[in-house]
TrEMBL record:
Its EC number is 2.3.3.21. It catalyses: pyruvate + acetyl-CoA + H2O = (3R)-citramalate + CoA + H(+). NCBIfam families: citramal_synth. It is an enzyme of class 2 (transferase). The lineage of its organism: Bacteria, Pseudomonadati, Thermodesulfobacteriota, Desulfuromonadia, Geobacterales. SMART domains: LeuA_dimer (SM00917). GO terms for biological process: isoleucine biosynthetic process; L-leucine biosynthetic process. Belongs to the alpha-IPM synthase/homocitrate synthase family. This is Citramalate synthase.
Length: 524
C-alpha cells in the first residue's frame, strides 16, 4: 500500500463554519483524538490572527502526542515588508509548531484586485516568505490558494506561483480549490498538467461548494497526490471542506492506500461523534460511513438479503469504521426485520413462530396510527417482550392530572402534575412542578417511583421531539412524541402517539422508565 498523509484542519478551517465555535480546551481535546486516530498533521490555527490560537499553540506543547505533528497556519509576507519584519511570519515562527503552512495568491485576478500589486511582486512574496520560513521550521507547506480557478484563468501564471514555491524548497505544495466549484474531471486534467512541470510533492485542499470535495480529493490521490487536507465531518465555511470521515475509509478500503491503521479506523465513528459533541451540533444521521443511517435497513427484502450476505445491500463492512448494521422496524418490515431485531435484543424468536406474525401485525397497525419505531427501539423491545409474555410489570399508574396555569398576562405559566402509582401492594400519590406540563409530569412520575426504584435517579431526559401527524384536523390532529433518555452507560428512544400531546408524552415517558427498570434487572 502506498502512503497518503492526512492533514486535518478542523481546528482552523472547521471553526470557520457557521454555528461552530471551539474553546481552547475543546481544540486540545480534539487534537488528542486526532492523534489517537493516526492523523499525521493537525493544523491548530492561525497564531497571528487571534489570542485563542496563540493559547492553543502554548497549551498543545504540554501534550504528549503519539505521532501527530502540529502545524501553524498563516499567509505570505505583506508587500513592502521583509519576512523578518512581517508580524505574521514572526508569529508563525514563535508558535514553535512542527510544521508551518502558509497560503499565497495563485489567481492573477486576486493578485490585482485583492493585493493590488504586480504579478511579479506576488511571486517575490511567495518565494521570500517560504525561503525564510524554511530556515526556521522543520517542515514548510505552501497552500496555493484558488489554484484551480487561477489555472483556468491564466495557467502560465498559476504554474509560475508554484515554481516560486518549488524554488524555495518547500516540503509540499497543496493545490487548493478554495471556492469549491471545480469539477472532478477538471481536477484530473489540471493535476496532470501540474505534474509535468512541478516535481515537489503535491497535496489537495478541496472545499465542498459543488458537493465534489471528497470526489476531488480521491481523484487527486489517484493521480499521485501525497497529502490530503480536510476536516472531521466536513466542517468548514460555506458548504464545508472535504470530509475526512469519508476520505479515510475510501482511501483504505476502496483504493488500497495506507493512511492510518485498521485498528485506528475502527474509532472513526467515535471521533466523528466526539467532534459533533464538542461543537454542540447534532450528528448527521445520513452521513456516509459514520452516520446512524449509513448501514440501516428498513425494507423487508433488504433485511432478508443482508442476513444471508451483508454485501447485497452494504458497500463495505460497517465495523471497519466503528459503525454497525441496523435493522429498522416499520410498516415496510417483513419477518426478517423482526427476527433480526429479536436477535439484536437477545430474544429467541423463530420465523414460523405465531408470535413473530403477531408482532409484525401489531407494528403495522400501530404505524398506521402514527407510531414510529425507527427512533424508538426501546419501545419496540418492550412490545416484543409483551408479545412473548416476558414483560414484567414493575408498576401501575392509577391515574394522573396535569394543570397548566397562567396567573397574569406578564407571568409565565405554571405547570403542576399529580400522579398515583401502585408498586406491589403500595400506592404512592405525589405531585411535582415543572417548567412545562411534560416536564412536570416527568418529575411527578420520577418522584413517585424513585422511592421504590432508586436507580431511576440515573435517568436523564436527553431529547424531546413532537411531530404533528398529517390528519387535516388542525389542533385536534394526532401527535407523535419521541423521547431520548439516557444514563451513565447508554441511551434509548421511546415513542407515544395520541390526539392529546400530554398523553403521547406520558406513553413515551412510561416506556422510558419501564425500559430502564428491565435493563437494570438484567444487569443484576
Amino acid at each position: 500500500m502506498s502512503l497518503v498523509k492526512l492533514y486535518d484542519t478542523t481546528l482552523r478551517d472547521g471553526t470557520q463554519a457557521e454555528d461552530i465555535s471551539l474553546l481552547v480546551e475543546d481544540k486540545v481535546r480534539i487534537a488528542r483524538k486526532l492523534d489517537e486516530l493516526g492523523i499525521q498533521y493537525i493544523e491548530g490555527g492561525w497564531p497571528g490572527s487571534n489570542p485563542k490560537d496563540v493559547a492553543f499553540f502554548k497549551d498543545i506543547k504540554k501534550e504528549k502526542l503519539r505521532q501527530a505533528k502540529i502545524a501553524a497556519f498563516g499567509s505570505t509576507r505583506r508587500a513592502k515588508v521583509t519576512p523578518d519584519k512581517d508580524n505574521n511570519i514572526v508569529t508563525l515562527i514563535k508558535a514553535e509548531a512542527d510544521a508551518i503552512t502558509i497560503f499565497g495568491k495563485t489567481w492573477d485576478f486576486h493578485v490585482r484586485e485583492a493585493l493590488r500589486i504586480s504579478l511579479e511582486e506576488n511571486l517575490e512574496l511567495i518565494y521570500d516568505s517560504l525561503e525564510y520560513l524554511k530556515k526556521h521550521a522543520p517542515e514548510v507547506f505552501y497552500d496555493a490558494e484558488h489554484f484551480f480557478d487561477g489555472y483556468k484563468a491564466n495557467p502560465d501564471y498559476a504554474i509560475k506561483t508554484l515554481k516560486a514555491a518549488e524554488e524555495a524548497n518547500v516540503d509540499c505544495i497543496i493545490l487548493c480549490d478554495t471556492n469549491g466549484g471545480t469539477m472532478p474531471f477538471e481536477v484530473a486534467e489540471i493535476i496532470k498538467a501540474v505534474k509535468e512541470q512541478i516535481k515537489t510533492p503535491l497535496g489537495i485542499h478541496a472545499h465542498n461548494d459543488s458537493e465534489c470535495a471528497v470526489a476531488n480529493s480521491l481523484h487527486a490521490v489517484d493521480l499521485g497526490i501525497v497529502q490530503v487536507q480536510g476536516t472531521i465531518n466536513g466542517f468548514g465555511e460555506r458548504c464545508g471542506n472535504a470530509n475526512l470521515c469519508s476520505i479515510i475509509p475510501a482511501l483504505k478500503v476502496k483504493m488500497a492506500k495506507e493512511c492510518i491503521s485498521d485498528e485506528q479506523m475502527r474509532h472513526l465513528r467515535e471521533l466523528s461523534r466526539f467532534v459533533y459533541e464538542l461543537a454542540n451540533i447534532s450528528p448527521d444521521k445520513h452521513q456516509a460511513y459514520v452516520g446512524n443511517s449509513a448501514f440501516a435497513h428498513k425494507g423487508g427484502v433488504h433485511v432478508s438479503a443482508i442476513q444471508r450476505h451483508p454485501e447485497t445491500y452494504e458497500h463495505m463492512r460497517p465495523e471497519l469504521v466503528g459503525n454497525c448494521t441496523r435493522v429498522l422496524v416499520s410498516d415496510l418490515s417483513g419477518r426478517s426485520n423482526i427476527l433480526a431485531k429479536a436477535e439484536e435484543f437477545n430474544i429467541n424468536l423463530d420465523s414460523k413462530d405465531p408470535v413473530t406474525l403477531e408482532i409484525l401485525d401489531n407494528i403495522k397497525e400501530m404505524e398506521n396510527r402514527g407510531y414510529q419505531f425507527e427512533g424508538a427501539e426501546a419501545s419496540f423491545e418492550l412490545l416484543m417482550m409483551k408479545a412473548l409474555g416476558t414483560h414484567r410489570k414493575f408498576f401501575t399508574v392509577l391515574g394522573f392530572r396535569v394543570i397548566d396555569e397562567k396567573r397574569g398576562e406578564d407571568q409565565k405559566p405554571l405547570a403542576e402534575a399529580t400522579i398515583m402509582v401502585r408498586v406491589g401492594g403500595k400506592v404512592e400519590h405525589t405531585a411535582a412542578e415543572g417548567s412545562g406540563p411534560v416536564n412536570a409530569l416527568d418529575n411527578a412520575i420520577r418522584k413517585a417511583l424513585e422511592k421504590f426504584y432508586p436507580k431511576l435517579k440515573e435517568v436523564k431526559l436527553l431529547d424531546y421531539k413532537v411531530r404533528v401527524l398529517p390528519a387535516g384536523q388542525g389542533t385536534a390532529s394526532s401527535t407523535r412524541v419521541l423521547i431520548e433518555s439516557g444514563d451513565r452507560h447508554t441511551r434509548w428512544g421511546t415513542v407515544g402517539v395520541s390526539d392529546n400531546i400530554i398523553d403521547a408524552s406520558y406513553q413515551a415517558l412510561i416506556d422510558s422508565i419501564d425500559f430502564k427498570l428491565h435493563k437494570s434487572e438484567e444487569q443484576e
